[in-house]
Amino acid sequence: MEFDVVVLAGGGSTRFGGVDKAMLVLDGMSLLDRVLTATAGAASTVVVGPVRTTYREVEWTVEDPPSGGPVAGLAAGLTFGTAPVVVVVSCDLPWITEEDVTALVAGLGERDGFGLRDTDGQEQQLAAAYRRTALAQAIRDVGDPRDKSVRRTLAGLDLAWTDPTHSGNDVDTWSDLDD
């Protein structure tokens, strides 16, 4: 099934002391490039955040208003591409693989979304495949997307989740890189 990708990479990385988390290197590759490798099968890819050097060509955009949070980033990213399925990933998912992305798209079924759980069982809304129409409607329903909660925005969607997996672990602190 054809899918587009929205990569959220515009956060302030405050827990990293302002270091650009997307450009942190793990095993010789930036976190952003690791996510872009996992999503290489997309019909289109847009990264929401400041333009950076990446290993492959992607579209770039920023949320309006800038620094408006992940829901504003999703709103900006959804203006790109036309595939009926959108895979949403944050740039801080260094263990996600192409196989994971394929499984998310294949596992969508008739639901609005299908996402990864991290090893603690936490649902990762920013590591999931969504039906474009359902995701766009949820964002429209929230009104102004600035500083809105992702969980509350997507609460009305019919979502399902994988079993806990290392691929769903994100990097929020320096110690998370040691996983």
UniProtKB/TrEMBL annotation:
Read off the SUPFAM superfamilies from this record. Nucleotide-diphospho-sugar transferases (SSF53448)
Q: Which GO terms describe its molecular function?
A: nucleotidyltransferase activity
Give all residue intervals belonging to the MobA-like NTP transferase domain.
Answer: 5-154
Pfam families membership: NTP_transf_3
Keywords, alphabetical: Nucleotidyltransferase, Transferase
Q: Which PANTHER family match?
A: MOLYBDENUM COFACTOR GUANYLYLTRANSFERASE (PTHR19136:SF81)
* Stated name of the protein: Molybdenum cofactor guanylyltransferase
What's the source species for this entry? Kribbella sindirgiensis
